[in-house]
Design goal:
- The protein is α/β, with parallel strands linked by helices.
- It has 19 helices and nine strands.
- The protein has helices at 8-19, 24-29, 51-72, 122-133, 152-166, 177-189, 196-208, 225-240, 261-268, 280-293, 300-307, 314-331, 337-344, 358-369, 373-377, 383-399, 404-410, 416-432, 434-447; strands spanning 35-40, 43-48, 78-83, 89-91, 142-146, 172-176, 212-216, 244-249, 271-275.
- The strands form two sheets. Strands 6-7-8-5-9 form a five-stranded parallel beta sheet, with helices on both faces. Strands 1-2-3-4 form a four-stranded mixed beta sheet, covered by helices on one side.
- The radius of gyration is 27 Å and the shape is elongated.
Length: 450
Protein backbone atom coordinates (compact mmCIF):
# COMPACT_ATOMS: atom_id res chain seq x y z
CA UNK A 1 0.00 0.00 0.00
CA UNK A 2 1.05 3.62 -0.41
CA UNK A 3 3.00 5.62 2.19
CA UNK A 4 0.53 6.45 4.96
CA UNK A 5 1.68 10.07 5.23
CA UNK A 6 0.16 10.70 1.82
CA UNK A 7 -3.34 10.31 3.30
CA UNK A 8 -3.06 12.27 6.55
CA UNK A 9 -4.65 15.29 4.86
CA UNK A 10 -7.76 13.17 4.33
CA UNK A 11 -7.84 11.47 7.73
CA UNK A 12 -7.02 14.51 9.89
CA UNK A 13 -10.39 16.26 9.22
CA UNK A 14 -12.14 12.95 9.92
CA UNK A 15 -10.32 12.65 13.25
CA UNK A 16 -11.46 16.13 14.21
CA UNK A 17 -15.08 15.19 13.52
CA UNK A 18 -14.64 12.01 15.56
CA UNK A 19 -13.21 14.03 18.44
CA UNK A 20 -16.57 15.84 18.61
CA UNK A 21 -18.50 12.56 18.55
CA UNK A 22 -16.81 9.98 20.80
CA UNK A 23 -15.52 10.09 24.36
CA UNK A 24 -12.01 11.35 25.02
CA UNK A 25 -10.90 7.87 26.09
CA UNK A 26 -12.22 6.25 22.90
CA UNK A 27 -10.57 8.95 20.85
CA UNK A 28 -7.07 8.58 22.27
CA UNK A 29 -7.32 4.79 22.59
CA UNK A 30 -8.62 4.01 19.12
CA UNK A 31 -9.11 6.92 16.75
CA UNK A 32 -5.67 8.46 17.14
CA UNK A 33 -3.99 5.08 16.63
CA UNK A 34 -5.61 4.40 13.26
CA UNK A 35 -3.30 5.04 10.30
CA UNK A 36 -4.62 6.00 6.85
CA UNK A 37 -2.80 3.78 4.34
CA UNK A 38 -4.85 3.99 1.15
CA UNK A 39 -7.89 5.41 -0.62
CA UNK A 40 -9.95 2.95 -2.64
CA UNK A 41 -12.70 4.74 -4.56
CA UNK A 42 -15.07 6.18 -1.97
CA UNK A 43 -13.34 4.31 0.89
CA UNK A 44 -10.46 5.40 3.07
CA UNK A 45 -8.43 2.38 4.23
CA UNK A 46 -7.33 2.59 7.88
CA UNK A 47 -4.72 0.34 9.48
CA UNK A 48 -5.22 -1.09 13.01
CA UNK A 49 -2.55 -2.58 15.31
CA UNK A 50 -4.35 -5.92 15.79
CA UNK A 51 -7.52 -7.94 15.17
CA UNK A 52 -9.14 -7.13 18.53
CA UNK A 53 -8.65 -3.44 17.84
CA UNK A 54 -10.42 -3.81 14.49
CA UNK A 55 -13.29 -5.80 16.04
CA UNK A 56 -13.97 -3.08 18.63
CA UNK A 57 -14.13 -0.34 16.00
CA UNK A 58 -16.32 -2.50 13.78
CA UNK A 59 -18.77 -3.33 16.57
CA UNK A 60 -18.84 -0.03 18.45
CA UNK A 61 -17.61 2.92 16.41
CA UNK A 62 -18.41 2.06 12.78
CA UNK A 63 -21.57 4.18 12.47
CA UNK A 64 -19.97 7.18 14.16
CA UNK A 65 -16.89 6.83 11.98
CA UNK A 66 -19.04 6.79 8.85
CA UNK A 67 -20.96 9.88 9.96
CA UNK A 68 -17.70 11.69 10.70
CA UNK A 69 -16.36 10.82 7.24
CA UNK A 70 -19.45 12.25 5.58
CA UNK A 71 -19.36 15.42 7.69
CA UNK A 72 -15.64 15.93 7.02
CA UNK A 73 -16.42 16.25 3.29
CA UNK A 74 -12.99 15.08 2.11
CA UNK A 75 -14.05 13.15 -0.97
CA UNK A 76 -14.67 9.75 0.64
CA UNK A 77 -17.84 8.44 2.24
CA UNK A 78 -16.94 5.17 4.02
CA UNK A 79 -13.99 3.25 5.41
CA UNK A 80 -12.29 -0.13 5.46
CA UNK A 81 -9.98 -1.59 8.09
CA UNK A 82 -6.82 -3.61 7.57
CA UNK A 83 -4.72 -5.16 10.35
CA UNK A 84 -1.03 -4.21 10.33
CA UNK A 85 0.98 -6.83 8.46
CA UNK A 86 -2.06 -8.15 6.54
CA UNK A 87 -3.40 -7.37 3.10
CA UNK A 88 -6.89 -8.68 3.91
CA UNK A 89 -9.63 -6.29 5.02
CA UNK A 90 -10.62 -6.77 8.67
CA UNK A 91 -13.69 -4.63 8.02
CA UNK A 92 -15.26 -4.15 4.60
CA UNK A 93 -18.81 -2.76 4.86
CA UNK A 94 -21.29 -5.00 3.05
CA UNK A 95 -23.39 -3.55 0.27
CA UNK A 96 -26.51 -2.23 1.92
CA UNK A 97 -29.74 -3.95 1.00
CA UNK A 98 -31.85 -1.80 -1.23
CA UNK A 99 -35.01 -3.39 -2.53
CA UNK A 100 -35.10 -1.19 -5.59
CA UNK A 101 -38.14 -1.03 -7.80
CA UNK A 102 -38.32 1.25 -10.85
CA UNK A 103 -40.05 4.58 -10.14
CA UNK A 104 -43.83 4.52 -10.44
CA UNK A 105 -44.18 8.31 -10.60
CA UNK A 106 -43.17 8.62 -14.26
CA UNK A 107 -45.57 9.57 -17.03
CA UNK A 108 -44.94 7.15 -19.91
CA UNK A 109 -46.11 9.82 -22.37
CA UNK A 110 -43.05 11.91 -21.52
CA UNK A 111 -40.56 10.67 -24.10
CA UNK A 112 -38.03 12.31 -26.38
CA UNK A 113 -40.21 11.42 -29.36
CA UNK A 114 -43.17 13.32 -27.93
CA UNK A 115 -41.09 16.40 -27.06
CA UNK A 116 -41.48 19.17 -29.64
CA UNK A 117 -38.06 20.62 -30.48
CA UNK A 118 -37.71 24.26 -31.50
CA UNK A 119 -35.14 27.03 -31.46
CA UNK A 120 -35.99 27.67 -27.81
CA UNK A 121 -35.00 24.21 -26.56
CA UNK A 122 -32.90 22.39 -29.18
CA UNK A 123 -29.67 22.54 -27.16
CA UNK A 124 -31.13 21.37 -23.87
CA UNK A 125 -32.98 18.62 -25.75
CA UNK A 126 -29.71 17.41 -27.27
CA UNK A 127 -27.99 17.48 -23.87
CA UNK A 128 -30.82 15.56 -22.18
CA UNK A 129 -30.79 12.93 -24.96
CA UNK A 130 -27.03 12.57 -24.60
CA UNK A 131 -27.40 11.99 -20.85
CA UNK A 132 -30.08 9.34 -21.42
CA UNK A 133 -27.89 7.53 -23.95
CA UNK A 134 -24.65 7.87 -21.96
CA UNK A 135 -25.33 8.44 -18.23
CA UNK A 136 -22.42 10.03 -16.33
CA UNK A 137 -20.64 10.65 -19.61
CA UNK A 138 -20.03 14.16 -20.91
CA UNK A 139 -22.68 16.12 -19.04
CA UNK A 140 -22.64 15.53 -15.29
CA UNK A 141 -24.39 17.08 -13.51
CA UNK A 142 -26.95 18.35 -16.00
CA UNK A 143 -28.81 21.40 -14.69
CA UNK A 144 -31.95 22.51 -16.56
CA UNK A 145 -33.73 25.74 -15.67
CA UNK A 146 -36.62 27.75 -17.05
CA UNK A 147 -40.09 29.08 -16.33
CA UNK A 148 -43.14 27.04 -15.44
CA UNK A 149 -44.69 24.95 -18.19
CA UNK A 150 -41.81 25.07 -20.68
CA UNK A 151 -40.91 21.37 -20.68
CA UNK A 152 -38.42 20.80 -17.87
CA UNK A 153 -40.41 17.96 -16.30
CA UNK A 154 -41.03 16.42 -19.73
CA UNK A 155 -37.28 16.23 -20.42
CA UNK A 156 -36.44 15.01 -16.92
CA UNK A 157 -38.94 12.18 -17.15
CA UNK A 158 -37.94 11.43 -20.75
CA UNK A 159 -34.40 10.80 -19.49
CA UNK A 160 -35.70 8.44 -16.81
CA UNK A 161 -38.03 6.60 -19.20
CA UNK A 162 -35.31 6.10 -21.83
CA UNK A 163 -32.69 4.86 -19.35
CA UNK A 164 -35.17 2.44 -17.78
CA UNK A 165 -36.17 1.10 -21.20
CA UNK A 166 -32.69 0.77 -22.67
CA UNK A 167 -30.53 0.18 -19.58
CA UNK A 168 -32.75 -1.80 -17.18
CA UNK A 169 -29.76 -2.81 -15.06
CA UNK A 170 -29.29 0.78 -13.89
CA UNK A 171 -30.99 2.11 -10.79
CA UNK A 172 -32.93 5.24 -11.75
CA UNK A 173 -34.51 7.50 -9.14
CA UNK A 174 -36.83 10.30 -10.25
CA UNK A 175 -38.19 12.43 -7.46
CA UNK A 176 -39.69 15.87 -7.04
CA UNK A 177 -37.83 18.10 -4.63
CA UNK A 178 -40.93 18.26 -2.44
CA UNK A 179 -40.92 14.47 -2.10
CA UNK A 180 -37.19 14.43 -1.40
CA UNK A 181 -37.54 17.09 1.31
CA UNK A 182 -40.47 15.30 2.95
CA UNK A 183 -38.66 11.96 2.98
CA UNK A 184 -35.49 13.45 4.46
CA UNK A 185 -37.34 15.39 7.16
CA UNK A 186 -39.77 12.58 8.06
CA UNK A 187 -37.16 9.82 8.13
CA UNK A 188 -34.00 11.49 9.35
CA UNK A 189 -35.08 14.41 11.53
CA UNK A 190 -38.51 13.70 13.00
CA UNK A 191 -38.48 9.90 13.10
CA UNK A 192 -38.48 8.34 16.58
CA UNK A 193 -38.01 4.85 17.96
CA UNK A 194 -35.21 2.30 18.29
CA UNK A 195 -34.88 1.82 14.53
CA UNK A 196 -34.93 5.54 13.64
CA UNK A 197 -31.22 5.60 12.80
CA UNK A 198 -31.55 2.45 10.72
CA UNK A 199 -34.40 3.98 8.70
CA UNK A 200 -32.32 7.09 8.13
CA UNK A 201 -29.35 5.04 6.95
CA UNK A 202 -31.54 3.03 4.57
CA UNK A 203 -32.99 6.18 3.02
CA UNK A 204 -29.51 7.65 2.68
CA UNK A 205 -28.31 4.44 1.03
CA UNK A 206 -31.34 4.43 -1.28
CA UNK A 207 -30.38 7.76 -2.80
CA UNK A 208 -26.62 7.22 -2.72
CA UNK A 209 -26.83 3.90 -4.53
CA UNK A 210 -28.55 5.44 -7.56
CA UNK A 211 -26.97 5.19 -10.98
CA UNK A 212 -29.11 8.07 -12.22
CA UNK A 213 -30.61 10.55 -9.74
CA UNK A 214 -33.12 13.04 -11.17
CA UNK A 215 -34.53 15.76 -8.92
CA UNK A 216 -37.19 18.15 -10.21
CA UNK A 217 -37.54 21.72 -8.85
CA UNK A 218 -34.44 21.78 -6.64
CA UNK A 219 -35.23 25.38 -5.62
CA UNK A 220 -37.57 23.99 -2.94
CA UNK A 221 -34.64 23.02 -0.70
CA UNK A 222 -33.99 26.73 -0.20
CA UNK A 223 -33.66 27.74 3.47
CA UNK A 224 -33.73 24.08 4.58
CA UNK A 225 -30.17 23.77 5.84
CA UNK A 226 -30.38 20.20 7.14
CA UNK A 227 -31.83 18.98 3.84
CA UNK A 228 -29.20 20.93 1.90
CA UNK A 229 -26.50 19.28 4.03
CA UNK A 230 -27.87 15.82 3.26
CA UNK A 231 -28.22 16.55 -0.45
CA UNK A 232 -24.71 18.01 -0.58
CA UNK A 233 -23.18 14.77 0.67
CA UNK A 234 -25.44 12.67 -1.56
CA UNK A 235 -24.38 14.79 -4.53
CA UNK A 236 -20.68 14.44 -3.68
CA UNK A 237 -20.85 10.69 -3.22
CA UNK A 238 -22.71 10.07 -6.47
CA UNK A 239 -20.33 12.23 -8.48
CA UNK A 240 -17.28 10.58 -6.87
CA UNK A 241 -18.70 7.18 -7.87
CA UNK A 242 -19.27 8.31 -11.44
CA UNK A 243 -23.07 8.39 -11.27
CA UNK A 244 -25.35 10.73 -13.21
CA UNK A 245 -27.23 13.61 -11.59
CA UNK A 246 -29.92 15.65 -13.36
CA UNK A 247 -31.47 18.68 -11.66
CA UNK A 248 -34.12 21.20 -12.68
CA UNK A 249 -34.99 24.59 -11.27
CA UNK A 250 -36.89 27.74 -12.14
CA UNK A 251 -33.66 29.76 -11.93
CA UNK A 252 -29.99 29.31 -12.88
CA UNK A 253 -27.65 28.18 -10.06
CA UNK A 254 -26.14 31.61 -9.48
CA UNK A 255 -29.58 33.08 -8.73
CA UNK A 256 -30.52 30.43 -6.15
CA UNK A 257 -29.22 32.67 -3.39
CA UNK A 258 -31.16 30.84 -0.65
CA UNK A 259 -28.99 27.77 -1.32
CA UNK A 260 -25.53 27.35 0.17
CA UNK A 261 -22.68 28.60 -1.98
CA UNK A 262 -21.05 25.16 -2.13
CA UNK A 263 -24.22 23.70 -3.69
CA UNK A 264 -24.51 26.48 -6.25
CA UNK A 265 -20.87 25.96 -7.16
CA UNK A 266 -21.36 22.24 -7.71
CA UNK A 267 -24.49 22.81 -9.79
CA UNK A 268 -22.54 25.22 -11.99
CA UNK A 269 -19.70 22.72 -12.35
CA UNK A 270 -21.62 20.63 -14.86
CA UNK A 271 -23.63 21.66 -17.89
CA UNK A 272 -26.26 24.37 -17.31
CA UNK A 273 -29.00 24.87 -19.91
CA UNK A 274 -32.11 27.01 -19.96
CA UNK A 275 -35.40 26.39 -21.75
CA UNK A 276 -36.79 29.52 -23.36
CA UNK A 277 -40.44 30.22 -24.19
CA UNK A 278 -41.49 28.79 -27.57
CA UNK A 279 -41.78 31.04 -30.61
CA UNK A 280 -44.91 31.12 -32.74
CA UNK A 281 -43.82 28.33 -35.09
CA UNK A 282 -42.95 26.07 -32.18
CA UNK A 283 -46.33 26.76 -30.57
CA UNK A 284 -48.02 25.59 -33.77
CA UNK A 285 -45.88 22.43 -33.76
CA UNK A 286 -46.77 21.77 -30.11
CA UNK A 287 -50.49 22.19 -30.81
CA UNK A 288 -50.28 19.80 -33.78
CA UNK A 289 -48.53 17.24 -31.61
CA UNK A 290 -51.09 17.56 -28.80
CA UNK A 291 -53.99 17.31 -31.26
CA UNK A 292 -52.44 14.15 -32.69
CA UNK A 293 -52.09 12.67 -29.20
CA UNK A 294 -55.75 13.46 -28.52
CA UNK A 295 -56.70 11.80 -31.85
CA UNK A 296 -58.38 14.99 -33.00
CA UNK A 297 -58.16 16.83 -36.32
CA UNK A 298 -57.78 20.58 -35.80
CA UNK A 299 -57.65 22.90 -38.84
CA UNK A 300 -54.50 24.99 -39.30
CA UNK A 301 -56.41 28.27 -38.96
CA UNK A 302 -57.65 27.15 -35.53
CA UNK A 303 -54.12 26.21 -34.46
CA UNK A 304 -52.96 29.66 -35.56
CA UNK A 305 -55.77 31.27 -33.58
CA UNK A 306 -54.90 29.24 -30.46
CA UNK A 307 -51.20 30.12 -30.69
CA UNK A 308 -51.91 33.84 -30.80
CA UNK A 309 -51.84 35.69 -27.48
CA UNK A 310 -51.36 32.40 -25.60
CA UNK A 311 -48.51 33.54 -23.38
CA UNK A 312 -45.30 31.59 -22.84
CA UNK A 313 -46.63 28.64 -20.85
CA UNK A 314 -46.92 25.43 -22.90
CA UNK A 315 -49.40 24.02 -20.38
CA UNK A 316 -51.69 27.01 -20.92
CA UNK A 317 -51.36 26.48 -24.67
CA UNK A 318 -52.41 22.84 -24.27
CA UNK A 319 -55.26 23.92 -21.99
CA UNK A 320 -56.63 26.19 -24.71
CA UNK A 321 -56.61 23.32 -27.20
CA UNK A 322 -58.24 20.95 -24.70
CA UNK A 323 -61.00 23.43 -24.01
CA UNK A 324 -61.79 23.83 -27.71
CA UNK A 325 -61.85 20.06 -28.26
CA UNK A 326 -64.16 19.69 -25.26
CA UNK A 327 -66.51 22.37 -26.62
CA UNK A 328 -66.61 20.59 -29.98
CA UNK A 329 -67.58 17.30 -28.36
CA UNK A 330 -70.03 18.92 -25.96
CA UNK A 331 -71.92 20.78 -28.69
CA UNK A 332 -71.31 18.06 -31.32
CA UNK A 333 -70.04 20.57 -33.90
CA UNK A 334 -66.82 20.74 -35.98
CA UNK A 335 -63.82 22.65 -34.71
CA UNK A 336 -63.71 26.10 -36.28
CA UNK A 337 -62.20 29.46 -35.41
CA UNK A 338 -65.68 30.64 -34.40
CA UNK A 339 -66.09 27.71 -32.02
CA UNK A 340 -62.60 28.26 -30.63
CA UNK A 341 -63.28 31.93 -29.97
CA UNK A 342 -66.54 31.05 -28.26
CA UNK A 343 -64.98 28.28 -26.19
CA UNK A 344 -62.10 30.42 -24.97
CA UNK A 345 -64.56 33.10 -23.92
CA UNK A 346 -66.61 30.46 -22.13
CA UNK A 347 -65.07 31.34 -18.85
CA UNK A 348 -68.55 32.87 -18.74
CA UNK A 349 -71.35 30.34 -19.09
CA UNK A 350 -73.92 30.66 -21.86
CA UNK A 351 -76.29 32.71 -19.74
CA UNK A 352 -73.41 35.09 -19.04
CA UNK A 353 -74.02 35.11 -15.32
CA UNK A 354 -71.38 33.01 -13.64
CA UNK A 355 -67.67 32.76 -14.26
CA UNK A 356 -66.00 29.34 -14.17
CA UNK A 357 -63.26 29.46 -11.54
CA UNK A 358 -61.31 26.92 -9.50
CA UNK A 359 -63.71 27.54 -6.61
CA UNK A 360 -66.78 26.92 -8.77
CA UNK A 361 -65.36 23.55 -9.86
CA UNK A 362 -64.38 22.65 -6.29
CA UNK A 363 -67.86 23.55 -5.06
CA UNK A 364 -69.50 21.44 -7.78
CA UNK A 365 -67.35 18.41 -6.94
CA UNK A 366 -67.97 18.84 -3.19
CA UNK A 367 -71.71 19.05 -3.77
CA UNK A 368 -71.77 16.06 -6.12
CA UNK A 369 -69.82 13.76 -3.77
CA UNK A 370 -71.13 15.29 -0.54
CA UNK A 371 -67.71 16.16 0.89
CA UNK A 372 -66.44 19.37 2.45
CA UNK A 373 -64.02 21.71 0.73
CA UNK A 374 -61.58 21.28 3.61
CA UNK A 375 -61.53 17.52 3.09
CA UNK A 376 -61.26 17.83 -0.68
CA UNK A 377 -58.19 20.08 -0.65
CA UNK A 378 -56.73 18.53 2.50
CA UNK A 379 -54.14 15.77 2.94
CA UNK A 380 -56.42 12.87 3.92
CA UNK A 381 -55.85 9.86 1.65
CA UNK A 382 -59.08 7.97 2.21
CA UNK A 383 -60.44 6.50 -1.02
CA UNK A 384 -63.71 8.38 -0.71
CA UNK A 385 -61.72 11.65 -0.83
CA UNK A 386 -58.84 10.76 -3.15
CA UNK A 387 -61.06 10.01 -6.15
CA UNK A 388 -63.15 13.22 -5.94
CA UNK A 389 -59.90 15.16 -5.46
CA UNK A 390 -58.41 13.61 -8.60
CA UNK A 391 -61.61 14.26 -10.57
CA UNK A 392 -61.61 17.87 -9.39
CA UNK A 393 -58.02 18.19 -10.59
CA UNK A 394 -58.96 16.67 -13.96
CA UNK A 395 -61.90 19.05 -14.42
CA UNK A 396 -59.74 22.08 -13.63
CA UNK A 397 -57.24 20.97 -16.26
CA UNK A 398 -60.05 20.45 -18.77
CA UNK A 399 -62.13 23.56 -18.15
CA UNK A 400 -59.60 26.20 -17.10
CA UNK A 401 -56.66 27.57 -19.07
CA UNK A 402 -54.43 27.63 -15.99
CA UNK A 403 -50.85 26.42 -15.39
CA UNK A 404 -50.61 23.19 -13.39
CA UNK A 405 -48.93 25.02 -10.52
CA UNK A 406 -51.91 27.39 -10.24
CA UNK A 407 -54.27 24.42 -10.14
CA UNK A 408 -52.09 22.79 -7.51
CA UNK A 409 -52.22 25.94 -5.40
CA UNK A 410 -56.03 25.94 -5.55
CA UNK A 411 -56.05 22.30 -4.45
CA UNK A 412 -54.13 22.67 -1.21
CA UNK A 413 -50.71 23.73 -2.55
CA UNK A 414 -50.02 20.46 -4.38
CA UNK A 415 -47.10 20.36 -6.80
CA UNK A 416 -47.52 20.22 -10.55
CA UNK A 417 -46.34 16.59 -10.71
CA UNK A 418 -49.22 15.53 -8.44
CA UNK A 419 -51.69 17.47 -10.61
CA UNK A 420 -50.30 15.86 -13.75
CA UNK A 421 -50.56 12.39 -12.22
CA UNK A 422 -54.16 12.97 -11.11
CA UNK A 423 -55.21 14.27 -14.51
CA UNK A 424 -53.68 11.29 -16.31
CA UNK A 425 -55.11 8.86 -13.76
CA UNK A 426 -58.66 10.11 -14.34
CA UNK A 427 -58.15 10.03 -18.12
CA UNK A 428 -57.22 6.36 -17.81
CA UNK A 429 -60.18 5.60 -15.52
CA UNK A 430 -62.61 7.20 -17.97
CA UNK A 431 -61.54 4.67 -20.59
CA UNK A 432 -62.49 1.66 -18.47
CA UNK A 433 -65.01 2.91 -15.92
CA UNK A 434 -68.36 4.13 -17.26
CA UNK A 435 -69.47 5.33 -13.83
CA UNK A 436 -66.48 7.67 -13.52
CA UNK A 437 -67.06 8.97 -17.04
CA UNK A 438 -70.72 9.65 -16.21
CA UNK A 439 -69.78 11.40 -12.94
CA UNK A 440 -67.44 13.69 -14.84
CA UNK A 441 -70.06 14.53 -17.46
CA UNK A 442 -72.61 15.27 -14.73
CA UNK A 443 -70.24 17.57 -12.87
CA UNK A 444 -69.26 19.34 -16.09
CA UNK A 445 -72.92 20.02 -16.76
CA UNK A 446 -73.30 21.42 -13.24
CA UNK A 447 -70.31 23.72 -13.75
CA UNK A 448 -71.44 24.80 -17.22
CA UNK A 449 -75.05 25.17 -16.07
CA UNK A 450 -76.28 22.75 -18.72
Amino acid sequence: MADSTNFDFIYNPIKEKMRETVSHISYITYIEKLKPVDVDGRFIVLQTPNENFAQYITGTLADKMREAIIKADVGVSDFRLVVEGSNEYAYNPPAAEDNYTPPSNLDKKYTFDSFVVGKNNEFVYAAALNVAEDPAGTYNPLFIYGGTGLGKTHLMQAIANKVLAEKPNLKVIYVTCEQFVNEIIDTMFTSRGPDARDRGNKLRQHYRSADVLIIDDIQFIANKKAVQEEFFHTFNELVSKGKQIVISSDQPPKELTALEERLRTRFSGGLVFDILPPNFETKIAILKRKAFEKKCIVPDEVLTFLAQDSGDDVRTLEGRLTKVIFASKLHEVPITVTLAASALNEAVSEDGKEEITPDSIINAVCSYYNVTKGDLVGKCKKKELVQPRQICCYLMCELLSLPLMSIGKALGNRNHTTILYSRNKVEEMCQVNDRIAKDIDDIKNIVLKK
